[in-house]
Amino acid sequence: EKLRHHGIRVKIIGNLKMLPEDVQDLCNRAMDISEENSKFTLNVAFSYTSREEITHAVRESVKLVQKGEITPEQIDEQLLDDLMYTSGSPKVDLLLRTSGECRLSDFMLWQASESITYFTKVLWPEFRFYHLLLA
Question: Which residues in the chain come in under a pLDDT of 70?
Fold first, then answer.
């Protein structure tokens, strides 16, 4: 109900097939319930790595070629972008990395290619709106 009230669409990114079936059902339910919301998108990463996501997109593009739906020459950045788990989500404007780590740790590498990345020593549980303003 709160998701609808605030216009938040939930998108679970990652290889959901690796999660227990009951968790997959909950993830799908959250996405279905909030599917029409368009004010904000909340990407929640479960069973997610960028390497797996990019591999998934490449495999899906190969399947499209094998089915004759596209030619190998039609595989481009836009197609791969469309096959990423975050397809349909707004572009990442700001990627926050908490805990003082200055690395992305295999997280949203494709999507973060044009974003601003902000590294902070503040740990996630202590991160507040004030810290966001500093970014």
Answer: none
